[in-house]
Amino acid sequence: MKSLANYTFFLILTLFCSQTCIINIPSVAAITSMKPGDVLNHSQVLDSEGGRFKLGFFSIPQTNKTYLGIWYAGDPVEKKLWIANPNTPILNNSGLLTLDSTGALRITSGGKTVVNIATPLLTGSLIARLQDSGNFVVQDETRNRTLWQSFDHPTSCLLPGMKLGYNLTTRQNWTLTSWLVSSTIPASGAFTLSLEAIQDAFQLVVSRRGEIYWTSGAWNDQGFPYLPSFRDSATTYQYNLNLVSGTDGMFFQFEATKGSFPSLELSSDGAIAAGDGSIYTRYNKFCYGYGGDDGCVSSQLPECRKDSDKFEQKRGDFIDLSGTSTSYYDNASISLGDCMQKCWEHCSCVGFTSLNSNGTGCRIWNGKRDFRVDESGNAVQRYVLVSPKSSKGKTWIWIVLSIVITMLICGLVCLIKTRIQKLQHEKRKKEEHIHEMNAADSFSNTNLKEEDEREVQDLKIFSFGLILAATNNFSSDNKLGEGGFGPVYKGQFPDGREVAVKRLSRTSGQGLAEFKNELILIAKVQHRNLVRVLGCCIHGDEKMLIYEYMPNKSLDFFLFDPETKKLLDWQKRFEIIEGIAQGLLYLHKYSRMRVIHRDLKASNVLLDENMNPKIADFGLARTFKQNETEAVTRRVVGTYGYMAPEFAMEGAFSIKSDVFSFGVLMLEILSGRRNASLQQFNRPLNLIGYAWELWKEGCGLELKDPALEDLYDTEQFLRVIHVGLLCVQEGATDRPTMSDVISMLGNGSMSLPIAKQPAFFTGRDEAESYSSSNKTEQCSINDCSITVIEAR
Ligand SMILES: *[C@@H]1O[C@H](CO)[C@@H](O)[C@H](O)[C@H]1NC(C)=O
Ligand SMILES: *[C@@H]1O[C@H](CO)[C@@H](O)[C@H](O)[C@H]1NC(C)=O
Ligand SMILES: *[C@@H]1O[C@H](CO)[C@@H](O)[C@H](O)[C@H]1NC(C)=O
Ligand SMILES: *[C@@H]1O[C@H](CO)[C@@H](O)[C@H](O)[C@H]1NC(C)=O
Ligand SMILES: *[C@@H]1O[C@H](CO)[C@@H](O)[C@H](O)[C@H]1NC(C)=O
Ligand SMILES: *[C@@H]1O[C@H](CO)[C@@H](O)[C@H](O)[C@H]1NC(C)=O
Ligand SMILES: *[C@@H]1O[C@H](CO)[C@@H](O)[C@H](O)[C@H]1NC(C)=O
Ligand SMILES: *[C@@H]1O[C@H](CO)[C@@H](O)[C@H](O)[C@H]1NC(C)=O
C-alpha cells in the first residue's frame, strides 16, 4: 500500500511539475494585429482573430531560406497557403515585417527592404490584421476601408472565399502560380492556373510557361467535367464550387463542407490538389498532348512520339551504349515540369531527371539507352520513357496489313500516274520533268477525285501537274501579288474551283517531315476570319500552299485607293476591325497551337465577297523560324512600320508584338492612310505619332479618313482610336491582349486605361531640343490646335 501511495504522490508531483513547467515557460502574448511602427520578428507569430490561421516567418530546412507565410493553426504539416516573398527569400533569421505610418507593409532584413508587400501610401488610423478567413489585410480604421489584402495576391493556394478569375473594372486578375519545387522552393514555377472564357464557356486553365496545358472543361453549374466532383461522400474533402460572372468579369470560389484545413492548390507538377495534397485532376503526373478524357490539351505530337508513350518513375540508371549523349540544362529557375517538356519534344530523349539535388535544372539522356532497374533503396529515381511494344502474337496481322498497304500504295501511284498523263495530254506543252510528287510515300494518299474537302490525314495534297495546269504554268497573268514568303498566283481547277497558290520561297531550309507537320497544324487552324488553307503541293524543293481564293483582294487595295476606299463606310470598317481582332484572338488563344502572326498588315488581310476580313499568311513565320525553343529569332520576319519596337530592335516576339501591328492597322483603317505615309505632310511624324498628337490635344476626330462620310458614330470612333493607341504603347506589357481589345471595342460603357506614349513616337519631346523653326497649324475643326515641328 505504501508503495502505491508513493507512486501516486510521485505521479501527482510529476503532473503538477509539468503543469507548472508549462506555465513557467515565458509565453509570448498572442499578437493579433499590427499598428504603424509595429514589427514582427522571426520568433513572433500573428494570430487570426478567431485563431484559425497564423502568419509568421518560417525557414525551409532543405535550403535554410526564410519566407513570410500564412498557414492553418494546428495543421500538422503547416502547409503554406500564402507567401509574401516567394521569389525573394531571406537568407538568415533576420527578417522583420514592418508596417509604417503610410500603410507600407515591408519585409526588411539587416536594415534593407527585401520586398514591399503593400504600399498604399495613406495616412490615417491604420491596422494590419489576419482575418479568420486567412486573409491578411491592411485597413484604414477611420474610414473602414481595406487598402490591401493578401486575397488579391494569391500564390499557389486558393482558400474558401478567395477568388480566382478577373475583374476588368478593377483590372484585377487572380491567378495561382505553382511552386518551382514542391514543399522546398516556393519561387514561381512553370504552371499557372486561371479562369478563362473559352468559346463562351468558363473553364479553369492550367498553363505551362504561358502555353495552355490543361483545361477543366466548361462549367456546368455542378462543376467542371475534368475536375471530378468535390461532393463525393467518399472523399476526405467536400467542396461546393461556385462561379460568379458579370459583364465586367468573373470569378470562381469554393466553400468547404467537409475536411479539415481545406484549400485548393496548384502543385508544382501543374495538377490541382485538395488540402491534404491528394490530386483532383484526372491526369497522372504529366500531360502529353495526345488527348484522352483528362482535359489535357492536345497539341502537335512530336514525330517520334506515339499515343501510348509516357514517362514512368523508376529507380536505377541508364547504361551507356555507343553514340549516346547526356544534355544538361543548368538553370535554377526550371524544374521537372520543364524537363518533361524538353525531353518529350526532343526526339532522341529517353529519360530525364532534375540536375541539382534541390530539384532544379534538367539532365536529359539521349540516344539508344538501356535502363537497369535497381530496386535497392539507395538507387535514384529517374523518369524513363516507356513505349509499349506490339505483342509478338499479332505479327501476322502486321504482315497482312503491310501487304495490303503496299498494294494500295501501288494502286494509288498508278492512279496518280494515269491522272498526270491525262493532264499532260490536255495541256500539250508541259515540261518533261513533271512527275508525281516525290512526297507520295510520306503522304500516302492523294485522292484528287474527291470533290468535297474531306481531309486526308488532315491535309489535302495536290499534284504538281494539277497546280501547273490551274495556274497556267505560273503565268505572270495569274500572279496576284508577292507575299512575305513568296509570290501568290490565282488558279482554277478543271472543275471550276478557284484557288490561290502561294509558291513558298526556298529559304525555309526545312525538312519534308517538319514541313508536313507544320502544314497539318496550319490546316487545322480554322476560323471565319482566317484564310482557309485547302492543302499543299510538294515538288522537289518546291513547296506550295493552296488557299481559298478571295475575290476582293486585300485590305490595302481598298483602303489606300482614293476611289475604292469610299466603298468602306464606317460600319464596314468597324466590322473589319472586329473581324481581324477575332481572327487574331483565335490564333493567340484558342487554336491548337499558339500562333503569333508576326507579319500582320493591311496587305495580309484579305476580303471575301461580303467584305469580311480574313487574315492570311498565319503560321508561316513559325515554319520559317530556325529554332523552335528560342523566343528570340535571328531572322526578323516582318514589315517595317508594323513591327513592335521590341521585335524590330531585339527580335523578341510575343503576342504583344501582334497587338502592336494590330494597333497600327486600326489607325490605318480609321485614317485611310499608311503608317509611313505622313512624310508627305512635311512632318517628322508617322501615323502613330500623328494620332498621338491629335489625341493628346483632344482632336481625335481629326484622324478620320476624309473619304468617310459624316455617317459615323463619333463615340465609337474615338473609342477605336483610344484602343488603337493602347495597342501601340511602347511597353509590351502595357498593351492589352486581344481578348481585352475585343471587350474594349464591344463594350461602349467600359472605361479604358489611359494610353501611354506610343513607340516610335518621334514627335515633340525629341524634336524640341533641336527645333528652331516651330510652325503652328490650326486644326480646321473644333478649334483645337496642334503644334507640328518642322526640322530644319
Ligand atoms: C522578437 O521580438 C520580441 C518582442 O519585441 C523580443 O522579445 C524577442 O527577443 C525578439 N526576438 C528576436 C529573435 O529578435
Ligand atoms: C542549414 O543550417 C543548418 C544549421 O545551421 C546546417 O547544419 C545545414 O547544413 C544548413 N543547410 C543548408 C542547405 O545550408
Ligand atoms: C542576415 O543577412 C543580412 C543580409 O543578407 C545581413 O545584413 C545580416 O547581417 C545577416 N544577419 C545575421 C544575424 O546573420
Ligand atoms: C466595416 O465594413 C464592413 C463591411 O464592409 C462591415 O461589415 C463592418 O460592420 C464595418 N465596420 C464598422 C466599424 O463600420
Ligand atoms: C489572367 O492571367 C492569366 C495568366 O497570366 C492569363 O492567361 C489570362 O488571360 C489573364 N486574364 C485576363 C482577363 O487578363
Ligand atoms: C468588379 O469590380 C467592380 C468594382 O469593385 C464591382 O462593382 C463588380 O461587381 C466586379 N465584378 C465582378 C464580376 O466581380
Ligand atoms: C531559365 O529558365 C527560365 C524559365 O524558363 C527562363 O526565363 C530563363 O531565361 C532561363 N535562363 C537561362 C540562363 O537560360
Ligand atoms: C538549387 O541548386 C542550384 C545548384 O546548386 C542553385 O544554383 C540554386 O540556387 C538552388 N536553388 C535554391 C532555391 O536553393
From TrEMBL:
InterPro entries: Bulb-type_lectin_dom, Bulb-type_lectin_dom_sf, Kinase-like_dom_sf, Pan_app, Prot_kinase_dom, S-locus_recpt_kinase_C, Ser-Thr/Tyr_kinase_cat_dom, Ser/Thr_kinase_AS
One GO MF term: ATP binding
Residue stretches spanning the membrane: 396-420
Class of enzymatic activity (EC top level): transferase
Keywords of the record: ATP-binding, Cell membrane, Disulfide bond, Glycoprotein, Kinase, Lectin, Membrane, Nucleotide-binding, Receptor, Serine/threonine-protein kinase, Signal, Transferase, Transmembrane, Transmembrane helix
Annotated SUPFAM superfamilies: alpha-D-mannose-specific plant lectins (SSF51110), Protein kinase-like (PK-like) (SSF56112)
Residue ranges occupied by any Protein kinase domain in the UniProt entry: 474-760
An example Gene Ontology CC term for this record: plasma membrane
Domain Bulb-type lectin: 31-151
EC id: 2.7.11.1
Compartments reported by the entry: Cell membrane
Signal sequence segment: 1-30
Primary residence: membrane
Domain Apple: start-end pairs: 304-384
A single BP term in Gene Ontology: signal transduction
Pfam families for the chain: B_lectin (PF01453), DUF3403 (PF11883), PAN_2 (PF08276), PK_Tyr_Ser-Thr (PF07714)
Top-level taxon in the UniProt lineage: Eukaryota
Catalytic reactions of this protein: L-seryl-[protein] + ATP = O-phospho-L-seryl-[protein] + ADP + H(+); L-threonyl-[protein] + ATP = O-phospho-L-threonyl-[protein] + ADP + H(+)
Membrane topology summary: Single-pass type I membrane protein
UniProt similarity note: Belongs to the protein kinase superfamily. Ser/Thr protein kinase family.
Protein name (record): Receptor-like serine/threonine-protein kinase
UniProt source species: Solanum lycopersicum
